[in-house]
Amino acid sequence: MRYDEDWDDRLDTLEPLPELEPLAPDVEEPRPPRRRWIRKRYIAAGVVALFMLLVGWLAITAPLSRSLQPIAPPSITLVADDGTPIARRGALVAPPVRLSELPAHVPQAFIAIEDRRYYRHWGIDPIGIARAAWHNLLAGGVREGGSTITQQLAKGVFLSNDRSFGRKGREALIAFWLEAWLTKQEILERYLSNVYFGDNVYGIRAAARHYFSREPEELTLGQAAMLAGLVKAPSRLAPTHNLSGARARGRVVLQAMADAGFITQKKAQSEPRVRLKVRHERDMPTGTYFADWVMPAARDQAGAVYERQEIRTTLDTRLQKLGEAAVRRGAIRGAQMALVAMRPDGRVVAMVGGRDYRDSPFNRVTQARRQPGSTFKLFVYLAAIRAGMTPDSPVLDKPVTIDGWSPTNSDGRYLGEIPLRRAFARSSNVAAVRLADQVGRKAVIQAARDLGITSPLADTPSLALGTSGMTLLELTSAYAAVAGNNLPVRAYGLPKEQQGWIATLWNRPKRLSTRERDMLLDLLAATVERGTGRNAQLAVDAFGKTGTTQDARDAIFVGFAGDLVVGVWVGRDDNQPVPGLAGGGVPARVWRDFMSHAIPGAAIRAPEPVDEDPEPVIQLDENGLNGSIDVGPVQFGVSADGEGVTLSAQPSDTPPPPPESRRPPPEEVDPDMEPPRF
């Protein structure tokens, strides 16, 4: 046997070795339980300490002692941009209500729309906050709030209305405080007795009296729903200014009451439409036209507070005085007048809503909706420019009939084919109607919308002549859009809040193209230089348009120069004609009067006086008789001696009037009267 074979036999007889067990991993010895417990205790103690410090800070800064006291009616002082007080206003309030004396549907309406879980939370509703956050996330913005009725009541005790984390924390603390010390019934009574309902009205009793001339104990279901709906945006939804919006919001409240089980679906749908019966207070609060206009926005900015607040406005006291003086000097018997001045960005610096606020607080700048007349032609010509026309493009100034209607020029003159520039300057009615029909009235309406006109515009042939009503503030804002080349311009009376970079990018204004704006300025300048607006000429570049409505019921001039955009309206409150009234007359002269004082160097220097009956210069001496007399630019001389009489003529030494006093020679005088009868 070989050696290797013997070795194989031996290997076969050996038993296999057992498998080796894997080595156990190194295991760290557990720490003693006591050390781990001490660490958790320190962390918990730190959290509790921070929480106590936060609560202590909130308790010190939050006026808890005031939270159980009656809320004082807020008082606001409006000041001009230089700090000069211009108006002080207090709130319209009434005695508080008792929940037990109100119809059940009154508190139910507020609970359904503002805080459906009111009786199931302790001042803060995490479920409501989460639901509102989810809805806002789906909507892509803030559409719904999560504040409870208790939190809304708590807002009234703060000395400021900032939106900081600290204020929200103090608000939550006071909400818990109110829930701990007051019953749900008492909290709801205080809320209903102090919440803001628009029109400077606080509390449901004052609101019921103001809007419906009745007590809150007599409110119908529809009336209660409308009042509950106002709480979301009281200034915007006040039914005296936005009845349709208030009614629509009231329908939302009725549906919310049905969803909450307070009323049936059938009842929510069958409730009749609410009608107003506004009670006008005998004692009108003192103020100004500007203060009346800006006060609702000031109320929203101030919120409900204990102490008097000062709200700074955009009003310029110097320009306001100049505007009031210009209106006084230009007033005509039997007619009213209004003036508004703003910067090109819409910042209102002067507002005169009538001849005398004490006699009539009705604001003819913001409240009167009158026809703009030919000032509306700005939008017609903008549409024409967008269609490819230029100020040199021809247009027919001839009679025309569209849809059975035949407009006429006020002076009865028709010049045939003329450039757009001349048609705009002389305010040709037939040319404007032809242009609107050529480019399409929808294009004209779109041009008006782009410049900021929001009032309804009737799609009829007379649209081009300004037959759709709008306010002077709205019309002047549209001209400001051209002046500043920002579309659209919204007039404002309170300084704008600083926007974040996202909002700045999202809300970037539109602009006219360079071509569009330059051509509009060409047309507007032609009106002032040689058209119907020559009474508005200044020593600086001026741009504007006249407008006169049917039968001389309204006369308007709107224009801009420097950094001011100004609109002037003249007419009667009863809409009766004013004989001889035209936009190129009194309104243009009042506009020039205001601008001449408001803009440095804008006043046209009067020419040096010329002696119409000059006294001759005569000398008598031993050489005979010598004399001279200046007649205009020529000096005539005469001399007499023993040889006879000698006559002579030579240029006068009197210098001509300075260039500033020279005005363009008149081309044609066309009264600005639009639109004709139809």
TrEMBL record:
Q: Which reaction does it catalyse?
A: [GlcNAc-(1->4)-Mur2Ac(oyl-L-Ala-gamma-D-Glu-L-Lys-D-Ala-D-Ala)](n)-di-trans,octa-cis-undecaprenyl diphosphate + beta-D-GlcNAc-(1->4)-Mur2Ac(oyl-L-Ala-gamma-D-Glu-L-Lys-D-Ala-D-Ala)-di-trans,octa-cis-undecaprenyl diphosphate = [GlcNAc-(1->4)-Mur2Ac(oyl-L-Ala-gamma-D-Glu-L-Lys-D-Ala-D-Ala)](n+1)-di-trans,octa-cis-undecaprenyl diphosphate + di-trans,octa-cis-undecaprenyl diphosphate + H(+); Preferential cleavage: (Ac)2-L-Lys-D-Ala-|-D-Ala. Also transpeptidation of peptidyl-alanyl moieties that are N-acyl substituents of D-alanine
Q: Name one GO cellular component term.
A: outer membrane-bounded periplasmic space
Task: Specify the superkingdom.
Answer: Bacteria
Instruction: Recite the UniProt keywords alphabetically.
Output: Carboxypeptidase, Cell shape, Cell wall biogenesis/degradation, Glycosyltransferase, Hydrolase, Membrane, Multifunctional enzyme, Peptidoglycan synthesis, Protease, Transferase, Transmembrane, Transmembrane helix
GO biological process, any: proteolysis
Region (Disordered) residue spans: 605-678
Sequence intervals crossing the membrane: 42-60
Q: Where is the Glycosyl transferase family domain?
A: 95-257
> Which Gene Ontology terms cover its molecular function?
penicillin binding; peptidoglycan glycosyltransferase activity; serine-type D-Ala-D-Ala carboxypeptidase activity
Q: Where is composition skewed (Acidic residues) in this entry?
A: 667-678
Q: In which pathway does it act?
A: Cell wall biogenesis; peptidoglycan biosynthesis
Q: Which residues form the Penicillin-binding protein transpeptidase domain?
A: 338-595
Q: Which NCBIfam families match?
A: PBP_1a_fam (TIGR02074)
PANTHER family given in the database record: BINDING PROTEIN TRANSPEPTIDASE, PUTATIVE-RELATED, PEPTIDOGLYCAN GLYCOSYLTRANSFERASE
Report the sequence similarity comment from the record.
In the C-terminal section; belongs to the transpeptidase family. In the N-terminal section; belongs to the glycosyltransferase 51 family.
Per its record, how is this protein called by name? PBP1A family penicillin-binding protein
Q: Which organism is it from?
A: Sphingomonas horti
